[in-house]
């Protein structure tokens, strides 16, 4: 039953929202409401199969967004628009990401907090990374001391382990990068290392049975099944945040509650303590702007009065890549038959051979490369992801549509690659100079917002990706990779790029085959929209905790960073709650004391 008031209202049942709810629910006196626009999912066992996660894209569990036509990128996509999959499901986009767990580098977070004199990486960042995870069943992780049980409540919410199934390609790659002088080590344990580059086998968020494991699974298994102080309401589409008007100009507005739609009925529910916005990089700024928080000029365009002029929706950043099916080898590493095999399905169901190919996150090796050794920070510019297949694996049935690739590009370029055994080594732009924005198209909450990441607007971003292709060429020429007869398929070309005499072919290739790696951040960033404790400027009782608050992209898949920030936010939420209770108790004590003094001095007694 929906109550009139809760202590905490959490908007969004994704990675951050589910973790925050789990932590707050540890206090049995707290009443928590989670409003999730998407649905729950059934059958759970099917959607938790790691290899099938990509199939949730462009389904009922995906918002199905895409960017506006890009001026400098995405030329190979219909309407020059890249798809932006976002989870419309309990668990959010973590239900169909690659499950990769990578902390990023200390230098990433040092840059965030360079203006905070009391900042300490060990206590302000690393502590919260370690709090949320448990390493399981992998002796190669060295520090694995305990297992993760899917039924037993634990303080940590996410298991981390090395990928359970990999093809021989991973060893060829790791041997090859060592030939080139790069280190192979556990990056999650050595994230403060100096060096020109480091690689490892991918580590992922999977439990002991090889299932995808998210904060949503933790919430359902360990909280909702055991506590009665949390209500998870699905199909609840938030319209706006409700505020109490400030009594004076010097006082901030106070978040009072939320208005939302649930099966075509409008509801209002109120928060005694806080409203926590965890709707993600697109919907958190959208909800803020619909509530009157955003740039005045932007909101006036759609007929909304801005009472809190903040740069909401700006500073949008994303890791982008290129290079699907760019390398051929002399053997097939992974293809569609691996996922159509009943034997492999039985391996997964009964956890035989570590669960087999159905446990794959697709990415088998991940790494960093520092291109500029004079870089003042220790942050690498280039990331690398290795996949033992290409998008032509399914011969154009599904994967190309998920990327929105034009028919003419598919038939004139990718179709010619069908006769090769291809793999993919993706160079990833880790710290883009190009930034974009998210704006409202309308004051109607049902209308999707405008997404313009402005990919490759800054030419230096193109150069980083070109350097990545140079690295891939060097890797294919190593003794290790030559055992597979690895070849860069530059003899098969995109016709439009070959005919463009004004642009270098590879630059044209990058601008055509621009790929998001699904790591958008920054639209409600720390220092611009929220403070260091995730409180929205000029408001009370309102925080934002999700990927939108990340001010600068870290050198990592951002899911782990979002989990860390959610863990960090809990301490701030609890601190505020304690201070409020202490303040109220102090007022009561002062009132009692003054009453006694007054009674002794009053002549009427």
What does this structure look like?
The protein contains 17 helices and 25 strands. By secondary structure, it is α/β, with parallel strands linked by helices. It folds into 2 domains: 1-129 and 211-316 and 432-453 and 519-605, FAD/NAD(P)-binding domain; 164-201 and 320-431 and 457-513, 2-Layer Sandwich (Cholesterol Oxidase, domain 2), CATH 3.30.410. Strand 11 and strand 12 (253-262) form a beta hairpin. Helix 4 crosses helix 17.
Shape: globular
Mind telling me the C-alpha Rg?
25 Å
- Beta strand %: 15-25%
Helix content: 25-40%
Cα-to-Cα separation, first versus last residue = 51 Å
Structural class: alpha/beta
- Helix tally equals 17
* Overall pLDDT confidence: 91
Question: CATH class of the largest domain, please?
Answer: Alpha Beta
Largest sheet: 9 strands, mixed
Count up the domains: 2
Fourth-tier CATH superfamily name of the largest domain: FAD/NAD(P)-binding domain
Instruction: Give the CATH topology of the largest domain.
Output: FAD/NAD(P)-binding domain
User: Based on the structure given, which CATH architecture of the largest domain is correct?
Assistant: 3-Layer(bba) Sandwich
Q: Indicate the low-confidence ranges by residue numbers.
A: 138-154, 597-605
Tell me the number of strands: 25
């Amino acid at each position: 039953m929906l109550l009139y008031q809760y202590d905490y209202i959490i908007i969004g049942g994704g990675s951050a929202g589910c973790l925050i709810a789990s932590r707050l629910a540890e206090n049995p006196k707290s009443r928590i409401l989670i409003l999730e626009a998407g649905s729950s999912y059934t059958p759970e066992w099917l959607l938790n199969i790691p290899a099938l996660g990509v199939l949730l894209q462009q389904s009922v569990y995906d918002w199905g967004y895409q960017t506006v036509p890009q001026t400098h990128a995405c030329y190979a996509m219909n309407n020059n628009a890249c798809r932006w999959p976002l989870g419309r499901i309990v668990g959010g986009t973590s239900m169909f990401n690659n499950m990769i767990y990578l902390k990023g580098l200390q230098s990433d977070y040092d840059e965030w907090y360079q203006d905070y004199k009391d900042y300490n990486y060990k206590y302000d960042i690393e502590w919260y990374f370690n709090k949320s995870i448990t390493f399981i069943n992998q002796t190669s992780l060295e520090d694995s001391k305990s297992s993760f049980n899917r039924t037993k409540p634990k303080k940590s919410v996410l298991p981390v382990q090395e990928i359970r199934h990999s093809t021989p390609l991973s060893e060829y790659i790791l041997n090859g990068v060592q030939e080139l002088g790069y280190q192979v080590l556990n990056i999650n344990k050595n994230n403060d290392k100096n060096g020109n580059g480091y690689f490892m086998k991918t580590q992922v968020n999977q439990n002991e049975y090889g299932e995808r494991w998210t904060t949503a699974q933790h919430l359902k298994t360990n909280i909702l099944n055991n506590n009665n102080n949390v209500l998870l309401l699905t199909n609840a589409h938030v319209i706006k945040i409700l505020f109490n008007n400030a009594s004076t100009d010097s006082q901030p507005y106070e978040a009072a509650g939320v208005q939302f739609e649930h099966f075509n009925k409008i509801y209002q529910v109120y928060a005694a303590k806080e409203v926590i916005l965890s709707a993600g990089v697109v919907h958190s700024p959208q909800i803020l702007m619909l509530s009157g928080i955003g740039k005045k000029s932007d909101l006036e365009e759609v007929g909304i009065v801005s009472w809190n002029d903040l740069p909401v929706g700006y500073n949008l950043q994303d890791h982008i890549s290129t290079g699907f099916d760019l390398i051929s080898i002399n053997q097939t590493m992974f293809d569609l038959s691996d996922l159509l095999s009943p034997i492999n399905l039985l391996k997964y169901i009964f956890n035989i051979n570590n669960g087999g190919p159905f446990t794959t996150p697709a990415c088998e090796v991940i790494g960093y490369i520092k291109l500029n050794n004079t870089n003042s920070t220790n942050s690498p510019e280039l990331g690398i992801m290795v996949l033992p297949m290409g998008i032509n694996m399914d011969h154009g049935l599904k994967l190309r549509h998920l990327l929105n690739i034009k028919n003419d590009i598919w038939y004139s370029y990718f179709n010619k690659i069908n006769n090769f055994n291809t793999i993919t080594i993706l160079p990833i732009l880790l710290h883009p100079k190009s930034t974009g924005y998210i704006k409202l198209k309308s004051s109607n909450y049902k209308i999707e917002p405008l997404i313009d990441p402005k990919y490759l607007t800054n030419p230096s971003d193109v150069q980083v990706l070109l350097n990545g292709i140079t690295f891939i060429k060097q890797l294919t020429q190593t003794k290790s990779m030559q055992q597979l007869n690895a070849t860069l398929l530059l003899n098969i070309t995109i016709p439009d790029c070959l005919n463009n005499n004004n642009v270098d072919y590879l630059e044209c290739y990058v601008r055509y085959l621009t790929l998001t790696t699904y790591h958008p951040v920054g639209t409600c960033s720390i220092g611009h929209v929220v403070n260091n404790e995730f409180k929205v400027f000029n408001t009370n009782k309102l925080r934002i905790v999700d990927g939108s608050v990340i001010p600068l992209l870290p050198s990592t898949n951002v899911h782990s960073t979002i989990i860390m920030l959610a863990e960090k936010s809990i301490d701030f939420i609890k601190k505020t709650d304690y201070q409020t209770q202490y303040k109220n108790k102090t007022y009561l004590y002062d009132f009692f004391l003054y009453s006694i003094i007054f009674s002794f001095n009053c002549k009427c007694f």
